Amino acid sequence: MATQITGSTRILGIIGDPIRQVRAPEVWTAMFQRNGVDAVCIPMQVTAAGLNAFLEGAKALRNFAGLIVTIPHKPASLSQVASPSARARHVGAVNVIRVQDDGQWAGDILDGVGFVGGLKARGQRVEGRKALVVGTGGVGTAIAFAIAEAGAAEVAVFDMAEARAADVAARIGKTGVPSRVAAADAGDFDLIVNASPMGMKPDDPLPINLDRLKPGSIVADVVVHPRMTKLLTAAHERGCFVQPGTHMMDAQIASMASFFGFEGGAWSPEAIAQAVAA
Fold it and tell me: Residues in domain Shikimate dehydrogenase substrate binding N-terminal (predicted)?
């Protein structure tokens, strides 16, 4: 049954550039229907140059539940958030923001929470693993810090922006978990994460060299379309456990729903699967 939009319908936006690859509108709108919430999720393509103006103007919308923030706006949006969570300040990015009663943005970063939660829900451990995270934008940095907090033995990072990767490695090192800048090579790592956009397009090359990939390793991707990227397909063929980007998204929806004030109802990955299939 199609969603009926009324004068009371609240809007949850998702901003990014590009935006066509996101799965959030279909998932959130299906979940709103399932849980009896009068709201819809709308994709909004916003350029980097227009981000600040958009965020300032969006504060005026009184039926706005908030925004999910995706590539490339997670780090830049933090500067517009008056009340970021301690986690967002630590990571240097936000992926959810909402307008407070004082008219200012509050924000948090839940990607890392969702990533680790998705692995644990599928019976995979993070503790003691040597991890490589490729891509140190907002999502990659959040995942790297979450992996460190979950007890990884080491968290190495790679980014084409070498200075940014070095900064993330240094900040993770201050938490007490060994961290360094590494090549985009599976090497001797047993938890490997592509947190870059590489893999969205059919002709994208592999973001990570898998020549030395060990069977039994965990290989994960943040890309949601396609669900099984070239990286995950190749890793699966080599006997690895793979985690598509949908698991990271689904595992954080309950936390997002709470952040946006959608209390009650069912927001679990199982509920999401049932709602989207309906």
Answer: 14-97
